[in-house]
Amino acid sequence: MKAWNMYIDGQWVDAEERIDVANPATLEVIATVPKAKEKEAQAAVDAASAALPDWAAKTAAERSALLMNWFHLIDEQKEEIGRIMTTEQGKPLKEAIGEVGYANSFISWYAEEGKRIYGETVPASAPNKRIFVTKQPVGVVAAITPWNFPAAMMTRKVGPALAAGCTVVVKPSELTPLTAYKLAELAEEAGIPKGVINVITGDAAAIGETWMTDSRVRKISFTGSTNVGKLLMRQAADTMKKVSLELGGHAPFIVTENADLDKAVEGLMGSKYRNAGQTCVCANRVYVHESVEAEFVEKLKASVGQLSVGNGLDEGVEIGPLINEAAVDKVKKQLKDAISKGALLETGGEALSSEKGYFITPAVLTNVSDDMECMIEETFGPLAPVTTYKTTEEVIKRANNSPYGLAAYVFSQNISEAITISEGLEYGIVGLNDGLPSVAQAPFGGMKESGLGREGGHWGIEEYLEVKYISLGL
Ligand code: ADP
């Protein structure tokens, strides 16, 4: 069992107390990490603040070269990082290694994009004046990340922040901190100077508050629950930090009358059951046109029935455990509520008798109505509730009837209908005949209570930049 330390100012440091990290597939404690409090949180900001002037003064090409060193080391060790991730988070090894590749694509993409932080000159209103507009790093960035994508949620923030010339303090989830520490180890090996990346684990509320009240932290980038996101935004108000929030979702998945049903099922399998349904862009509510429901459900049941559930380190496993007992209880509660209101359980929803961990088999519900909990609250588990609809207008209205607005999916072969639905959806991301839309070069983020700002693409780096206007009198 490894005892990991925190990474502050280029040093690996301990704290007075420690936290156990357990494998959700076996419930074994696999490592311990330090439990930082205010003192260590502040030390991390001291380090990031001290490192800022030199890092910001480097040329974009110099920062890019260091980011690419990091990228290559991560790429060389993707299997090992994947293994660490599977043992702390549960997702199947193949998916974990896939996540490392996805996470790394943010580093390489922003290593390039950092070279394109262009300014502008604007025609002045007087002949003896000139208007210059430049961009500069916002300063020290706090990044607080969740457990469902332990590598990608870190690099999606740290990649653009570093490329922009910012330094960072990172707090991964205490449930999955090891991947983040491994990435920090590789950043050190890559030659990224001390203090530029600092990673700590511990008392989340104490760390969050320390960072949010420190005026040297100029930006918070958070991915996690809507409640914590709202708290951080309130805490950030007093020092007027820039805020990026990627919060909960409740994605509708719409299958129209003329959809290619095989493609729609394939899309739903990726969107719903990847990471055992624990992603914020997971399909949560499936709306199928009433004329194709029977055929769609048959095909879906056949595909779901083939999914292999088990320890993510075992060959061929496609669905690992959920992260903890509360996650399993939430799925069970939603199943019970739906069944009590008339839904039919077509398959799944059972524990695995052969395993100790937090397993639940992938479930499909039909005869679902909009008043069931699973149609209102984020599931974060492998449960697909299927309901039917009659008209395009109706399905857009029902899909939008949610405080969330992160991702939505539409499967249709009719271009007019597909565009009408896509444009009518109040969601930041629409997967149109695509169940897996997330890539480094595209903007990821939500509307309404799903958050603020966008990560990815050229939009993502703007979140770490301030615009400066220089008015020059000749
Ligand atoms: P989830 O339900 O996905 O675990 P959370 O919002 O609880 O979502 O967790 C996301 C991240 O926010 C984690 O790193 C967690 O430790 C952190 N977190 C939880 N509570 C707070 C808080 N009060 N202040 C700052 N960060 C917090």
UniProtKB/TrEMBL annotation:
Signal peptide (from-to): none
GO molecular function, one term: succinate-semialdehyde dehydrogenase (NAD+) activity
Keywords: Oxidoreductase
Location of the Aldehyde dehydrogenase domain: 12-470
A biological process term (GO) from this entry: gamma-aminobutyric acid catabolic process
Gene3D superfamilies named in the record: Aldehyde Dehydrogenase, Chain A, domain 1, Aldehyde Dehydrogenase, Chain A, domain 2
Active site, UniProt feature: 246, 280
Recorded family membership: Belongs to the aldehyde dehydrogenase family.
PANTHER family on file: SUCCINATE-SEMIALDEHYDE DEHYDROGENASE, MITOCHONDRIAL
Protein name: Aldehyde dehydrogenase
Provenance organism: Domibacillus aminovorans
Organism placement in taxonomy: Bacteria, Bacillati, Bacillota, Bacilli, Bacillales
